[in-house]
Amino acid sequence: MRNHFQPGNALDFIAPAGGVVSGKTVKKGGLIHVPSTTAAEGVAYSGDIQGVFILDSATSQAWTQGDTLYWDDAGKVWTKTATSNSKGGIAAYDKLAAEALGKVLLVPTI
Fold first, then answer.
1. Residue 71: alpha-carbon gap to chain centroid
2. Sequence-separated contacts (24+) of 60-64 with Cβ below 8 Å
3. pLDDT grade, residue 96 (50/70/90)?
4. Strand duo 26-28 + 44-48: pairing
5. In the chain, at which residue ranges do the beta strands (DSSP E only) sit?
6. Bridge partners, residue 65, by sequence
7. DSSP one-letter code for 52
8. Do residues 52 and 84 touch, judged by C-beta distance below 8 A?
9. 67 or 7, higher pLDDT
10. pLDDT digits over 10-68, tens only?
11. Do the beta carbons of residue 86 and residue 103 sit within 8 Å?
12. Angle at Cα 35 formed by Cα 66 and Cα 99, nearest 5°?
């Protein structure tokens, strides 16, 4: 197929102000992703937009596998709270409320 550009599991980005840290969720426009490398502001990097990742999560919430998750860009955590946050994932596994990390299946949204 001559018009296939790339698989699409990861995309190239330019790091925003403050740069990005490998493994820490980033929201750029409508794309929530996880950088595969640390990059300084203005430097190109690759970010995964699909897959299951162990990511920072709201410690006040328990998750059940299959729960819809939202990215809280202000608090920099994944949460079940929809208000003022961006839908972007599903709980891949259960998480206890006291746990600071959760397994998130990234789901690109439109």
1. 7
2. 60/97, 61/95, 61/97, 62/94, 62/95, 62/96, 62/97, 63/91, 63/93, 63/94, 63/95, 63/102, 64/91, 64/94
3. very high
4. unpaired
5. 10-14, 26-28, 31-35, 44-48, 51-56, 68-72, 77-79, 86-91, 101-106
6. none
7. E
8. no
9. 67
10. 999 999 999 999 999 999 999 999 999 999 999 999 999 999 999 999 999 999 999 99
11. no
12. 45
Q: Which residues are CB-neighbours of 108 under 8 A, at least 6 positions away? A: 31, 32, 49, 50, 88
Total residue length of the chain: 110
Residue with tokens 């397994």: 103
Tokens of residue 49, six digits: 């937009």
User: Could you identify the residue written with the tokens 């599903």?
Assistant: 90
